[in-house]
Design brief:
The complex is a heterodimer of chains A (203) and B (191).
Chain A lengths: L1 H20 L39 E3 L5 E3 L8 E6 L6 H4 L2 H4 L3 H6 L2 E7 L3 H8 L9 E3 L6 H6 L10 E6 L5 E7 L7 H13 L1
Chain B lengths: L2 H24 L13 E2 L4 H7 L6 E2 L8 E7 L4 H19 L7 E8 L3 H10 L6 E4 L3 H5 L7 E7 L5 E8 L5 H12 L3
Parallel strand pairs in B: 3-4, 4-5
Antiparallel strand pairs in B: 1-2, 3-6, 6-7
The chains are: A alpha/beta (203), B alpha/beta (191).
């Protein structure tokens, strides 16, 4: 009997602690006011990568908010490239990811790298959303049409049509050197990206 | 499992759920409240340690800071308004330090919600933040503070007997160094 009670107690403690610690945490920025749509907790990863480290990065050309078209191949032989796919405009974690990259242009410069931000949203949506972030120093690209084609090429298009929260580092030769398909509910720690970027640039 | 035990089990889950809900999501620090029990790491940097009037190693609680008033900014290096406000908050720090009347009576700290020590350091370096910033990588402090949006300001008055209470809190809308300090002085009765 005593033993049974102990088991109960442990079970309850487990449930209680799960309830306490599983609420999804993100510090929403006041910059977006009440305009952030709360998506709740999502399946961490919902796609299968089609590329791997060491592969040649699939080329693409996408329209940027600025009106120009940006191709991955234009950086070949010149710059390392960081692709930052984020799932969707106006959602909690995404809204607080690029503004952080926006204050570390110096780290990208030191590592001879450019950053390309990509979502599957259309240009007007991306325009309105990124305007809340202040002036961004990096191009923001729209993978809207054909819908999510680039995300699909890399294997980071989720089953509901948004992309994963994924980071790719592509070196100057066009080879993929780092992939982080992150839990969509969490922001990748900056130090992991910076460490990988430094490693890529030293190669 | 017997019926009564199943019942008890369900009740416990229900209670725990509602408690965690109130703790985690709805309570943000308000005027008159005391702070939740937040443990911060005593800074290694001797200047910062000195600024806060702390000694030794390990952790401390905000009311242990040697001051009459502590202004806490909950920020994130990823938050555009925190970035935009940073120079003006530095200005407030400078105003306090330049005033013989306020220096040693008002201290400022920042808590980086969801920010790793590396990310906090990036923010500190980018904006040359002169006051101590603390990392809260796993959002545990942020949760205790009711998951406020950033930037969030909490002003704490520490009494002679070591007790404390919140005299002001506000979400965003930093009004500038001078008006904010005026407000702090008035709310805390220092003026």
């Amino acid at each position: 009997m005593k033993k049974k009670r102990l088991v109960d107690l442990i079970l309850m403690a487990a449930v209680v602690s799960t309830l306490f610690f599983t609420s999804t945490a993100h510090a929403l920025s006041e910059a977006f006011k009440e305009n952030i749509y709360r998506v709740g907790a999502l399946k961490p990863i919902d796609s299968v990568l089609k590329v791997k480290v060491g592969d040649r990065a699939p080329d693409f050309t996408l329209p940027a908010i600025s009106g120009e078209k940006v191709s991955l191949s234009q950086y070949r032989g010149k710059k390392n490239v960081v692709l930052s796919f984020v799932p969707a405009a106006w959602t909690p974690v995404c809204s607080d990811q690029w503004p952080g990259y926006n204050i570390i242009k110096d780290i990208f410069d030191q590592n001879e790298a450019v950053l390309l931000g990509i979502t599957v949203d259309n240009i007007p949506t991306l325009f309105a959303w990124t305007n809340q972030m202040g002036k961004l120093w990096f191009p923001v690209l729209s993978d809207f049409w054909p819908h999510g084609a680039v995300a699909k090429k890399y294997g980071v298009l989720r089953s509901d049509g948004v992309s994963e929260r994924a980071l790719f580092i592509i070196d100057k030769k066009g080879i993929i050197r780092y992939i982080d398909v992150h839990d969509i509910n969490q922001r990748p720690a900056l130090e992991d990206l910076v460490t990988a970027l430094e490693k890529t640039n030293k190669r | 499992m017997s019926k009564t035990r199943l019942c008890l089990f369900v009740i416990v889950i229900f209670i725990a759920g509602s408690i965690s809900y109130t703790l985690a999501a709805t309570v943000s620090p308000l005027k008159g409240d005391v702070l939740p029990k937040i443990n911060l790491l005593i800074p290694k940097n001797p200047d910062e340690k000195n600024y806060l009037g702390l000694s030794g190693t390990g952790t401390f609680r905000i009311p242990q800071i040697k001051a009459k008033i502590v202004i806490v900014e909950v920020f994130s290096m990823y938050c555009p308004h925190c970035q935009k406000d940073a120079p003006r908050i530095n200005e407030m720090y400078q105003m306090i330090e330049d005033s013989p009347d306020l220096k040693n009576r008002i201290k400022i700290i920042g808590i980086g919600a969801g920010n790793s020590p590396f990310e906090v350091e990036v923010f500190k370096k980018t904006y040359s933040v002169p006051f101590p910033l603390f990392a809260d990588k796993d959002f545990s402090i942020h949760k205790l503070l009711g998951e406020v949006r950033t930037p969030f300001f909490v002003v704490i008055k520490i009494n002679e007997d070591g007790t404390h209470h919140i005299v002001h809190s506000q979400l965003g809308d930093f009004q500038g160094a001078h008006p904010f300090l005026e407000l702090v002085m008035k709310a805390s009765g220092l003026k």
